[in-house]
Amino acid sequence: MNWTQTFIPTLKETPSDAEIVSHQLLLRAGLVRKLTGGLYTFLPAGLRVLRKIERIIREEMDRAGGIEVLMPALQPPEIWQQSGRYETARDVLFKVKDSAQREWVLGPTHEEVITHLCASEINSYRQLPKCFYQIQTKFRDEIRPRFGLMRAKEFVMKDAYSFDASDDGAMASYKRMYDAYTRIFARCGLRAFAVEADTGVIGGNHSHEFMVPAETGENDVVYCETGAYAANIEKATSRGPVEATPSDGTGGAPEKFATPGVVTIDALAAAPHSIPASRQIKTLVFLVDSEPTLFLLRGDDQLNEAKLMARTGAVNARAATAEECAAALSAKPGSLGAVSGVPEKVKVYADEALRGARGMATGANEDGFHFRHVDIERDIRVTQWADLRTVRAGEACGASGLPLKIRRAIEVGHVFKLGTKYSDRMNATFLAENGTRHSLVMGCYGIGVTRTLQAVIEQSNDKDGIVWPVAVAPFEVCVTPLGVAAGSPTRAAADALVAELEAAGIEVILDDRDERPGVKFKDSELVGFPLRVGIGEKSLAKGELEFKPRGGVLEPVMVADAAAKVIAWVQAGRAGLR
RNA sequence: CGGGACGUAGCUCAGCCCGGUAGAGCACUUGGUUUGGGGCCAAGACGUCGCAGGUUCAAAUCCUGUCGUCCCGACCA
Q1: How far apart are CA A485 and CA A502, in angstroms?
Q2: Can you give the distance from the CA of residue A40 to the C1' of nucleotide B41 in angstroms?
Q3: Of A37, A194, A265, A491, which sits with the fewest C-beta atoms within 10 Å of its C-beta?
Q4: Structural domains of chain A, count
Q5: What ipTM was predicted for this assembly?
């Protein structure tokens, strides 16, 4: 392929609307262009990378027993109503109307479609297990598209769905996909690791996310350096706060005291009251499926809303407004408490870290007053104890006991064991060997293909541009003659080398642009080809070409040896050695 | 949806405070020159200053509204 015959519009300057390095490089290296927020055109070089990642995914999915299909992006709303997600996923569903004003849904994911298919096509345990996958464009009405391909309204996803006759079978399918994902990311040259994850709106009871460590990621991952534990912060647990919860109460009854104007944890912790945050009980009011509900945490802890959703089983939940708090209890936020004045029907969830807490302070449910000497188990009607707090760095790992750490990461894949959530609702059943009817046991597995592409760039770049792993580079080799005129010695040597490499199946681009050397060198580094072979008059006169691995040092190579050396270098790269 | 920033040439940006002729660099076209790390010289083309109202003799500039982009939060592969 000649550079002048394709289209790689590089940019010398950084576009002003790209914030993170991978987004800047996507644009600067001429891989994509924005149509509008969250919508991108893949240009030839970007498309080549996308296709290579897809090929790796297909190979590994096929190897893991996956069966490729292609489902419609346009879907009838009825199946979404049947699964219940027409409501729960409402915020991300793109809806369109046809000329008869009938509504359709643009698929953000395909549990409904595949379950509908299997409901009619799978009838017997003899047809199981099955694992279907597709690579397809998804549509999500993202509240805030961000960072180029990282979070887009339209993106390419590999999604897979397993169907088993039993829970054990489903676990085996889950494990096969988990292992396939590990291989896929490794083959893409990504350093990714699996963490325990919350299941969110997809549902299910067992889940891992595949994370690429990056400061620009949108997730916080809690992990133990021993490798004993890693989890998304939405799910993570520990042995509890570093500072133990006070259990040294006076034994006296709760005592109301005046705290005019004190409406924050910090204010109560400051003079004159000087009650440490760890000795306070924080009272939060949420509307859980429209029901006012109390959540009690230690003053220095943060409520984890993913845990709130999981523990309550809520479809929708949000913090109550000041007015709603006042209506449910008798005070505004800042003076709320659960010692008295909580209507019998209001549920009170208390965080496990508060178990046994004595001598605590909390709002008196009366503006301007707090209680002290509160013993939670004696003085508060707790409906349910639950893990609700967000883990903080430094807390002891539940497995190893060592301090946990927290780092940012990009989620590139997510595997779920779904169980029978969808098959139950959509009547996807089969007859077992003994003639009884059962719901199919499902799993679902996603990889953000376009996001993975950008994650590779985010993880693999330097001051000059992208440093592609050989396995996903748009071209493996860039041949750069400094003189391109037909018949010139440099052009002749370049043409000969390219022909030999192409014959050997190497993906090579010939930079045949009539540009100054500096421009060509800068561009080859910006786009990030793994290997550049420079051909200049001076070295050619000595019978040499210049072999320059991206990020490595320049090395002269004899013309006669060049092709063999390049081929060996690329093949080593394909094997994952670089 | 809440908070913030910004919309001027293909790109990066200046001009706006303090109203009066629309600018620079890069990119592009032509010619010359140069030729191992984003050259140099000359000439040229490229703009409804996001859009709509308003104030004014006069608006890129001031006011109002609106649309869009980007960042921070809630959502997710």
Answers
A1: 21
A2: 40
A3: A37
A4: 3
A5: 0.93
